Amino acid sequence: MLPLVALVGRPNVGKSTLFNALTRTRDALVHDEPGVTRDRNYGVCRLDESRPFVLVDTGGIAGENTHLESVGLAGPTARQARSAAEEADLVLFVVDGREGASALDDEILRWLRKSSRPIFLVVNKTDGIDARAAMAEFSRYGFDRMFAVSSAHRHGIDDLLAGILGNL
Ligand code: GDP
Ligand code: MG
Questions:
Q1: C-alpha–C-alpha distance, residues 59 and 40, integer Å
Q2: What is the largest CA-CA distance in the chain?
Q3: Does the beta carbon of 16 lie inside 6 Å of ligand 1?
Q4: How far is the CA of 42 from the centre of ligand 2 (A)?
Q5: DSSP tag of 48
Q6: Which atom of ligand 1 is nearest to 128's Cα?
Q7: pLDDT tens, N- to C-terminus, the chain (168 residues)
Q8: C-alpha to C-alpha distance for 117 and 112, rounded to whole angstroms
Q9: What is the pLDDT of residue 78?
Q10: pTM of the predicted model, to two decimals?
Q11: Which residues of 107-128 are buried (b: 16+ CB within 10 A; e: fewer)?
């Protein structure tokens, strides 16, 4: 069985765009409207042909103003995201480098850390901004591995891929 990597994060941070960058498809539905991707979406990353892995693009866990507790992680979308993260060998916690850390990011991360899955922090949308400053916004999360990427422009994807393959 191929290893499984899950993309988790609040709506609109660019999970589907990153999914497309890693799988080189347009399968994932990318949309400006938060929460548009509702179902789990599986694809295979073959950027390194010798080491394919399955990638799952979870839909937004909750709406921008809805905290995980208030949905009790019980809604269908939340449940999908939760089980994807629980089954994964590695979780990519995707955040928006332009917006910085939000309360919902904090909450998703708190929940992710209840499981023992390894987690990478992926700071997306770092095109046209200071990537270091964007990453510093998230330093309080205390991650060992942080990756600055621009999924839309495919920046940082090779480093992220190397990091993923080094941990599978
Ligand atoms: P999701 O809800 O987390 O799946 O986010 P999407 O992949 O649907 O992207 C949400 C919005 O952010 C879309 O308008 C994307 O075009 C935009 N976006 C995604 N990645 C990037 C990026 O690397 N840079 C910039 N500037 N915009 C991005
Ligand atoms: Mg999406």
A1: 6
A2: 43
A3: yes
A4: 12
A5: S
A6: 26
A7: 899 999 988 888 999 899 999 998 655 555 555 554 444 578 899 999 999 999 988 764 444 334 454 444 445 556 666 777 788 999 999 999 999 999 989 988 988 898 889 999 999 999 999 999 999 999 999 998 899 999 999 999 999 999 999 999
A8: 8
A9: 62
A10: 0.87
A11: bbbebbeeeebebbbbbbbbbe
Name the DSSP class of 106: H
CB 28 within 8 A of CB 37: yes
Cα-based distances in Å from 49 to 2, 3, 44, 112, 165: 13, 14, 10, 29, 12
Classified as helix, coil or strand, 62 is coil
Tokens at 62, concatenated: 């909750």
Q: Which of 71, 63, 64, 60 is nearest to 30 (CA)?
A: 60
β partners of residue 8: 93
Residue that the structure tokens 């009790």 belong to:
72
Structure tokens at 80: 């999908």
Cα(94) to centroid(ligand 2), Å = 11
The verdict on domain 4-166 having CATH code 3.30.300.30 is no
- Residue among 148, 153, 152 at smallest CA distance from 133: 148
